[in-house]
Design goal:
This protein has four helices and no strands. It has 90 residues and is an all-alpha fold. The radius of gyration is 16 Å and the shape is globular. The protein starts with 18 loop residues before the first helix and ends with a helix.
């Protein structure tokens, strides 16, 4: 017997993310035939459980998409990012 999917209540959020990161995530979601929201939920749920969200094959796809969209950021950059507008204020 198939496992029943949990019912959830979703809300609209207003998050701001780095532009190239969003392009890669949208392309990955399209590649996996899912919505961007479903992709983000899956990544966060995996991260909260300390589980790698992507297979080696999907990480290869991500690497190619990062190259296409010029995304050169890594996890090491995550706590050091600053908004472009703030860095060019003068």
């Amino acid at each position: 017997m198939p496992e029943k999917s949990p019912a959830v209540e979703r809300i609209q959020t207003g998050v701001r993310l780095e532009k190239r990161l969003v392009k890669v995530m949208r392309a990955l979601a399209e590649h996996r035939d899912m919505t961007l929201s479903d992709l983000i939920e899956g990544i966060v749920l995996h991260a909260f459980d300390g589980v790698e969200p992507f297979s080696p094959e999907t990480r290869d796809v991500i690497a190619r998409l990062k190259a296409i969209y010029g995304l050169d950021l890594s996890a090491e950059d995550s706590h050091r990012l600053r908004d472009f507008r703030e860095s060019n204020a003068g």
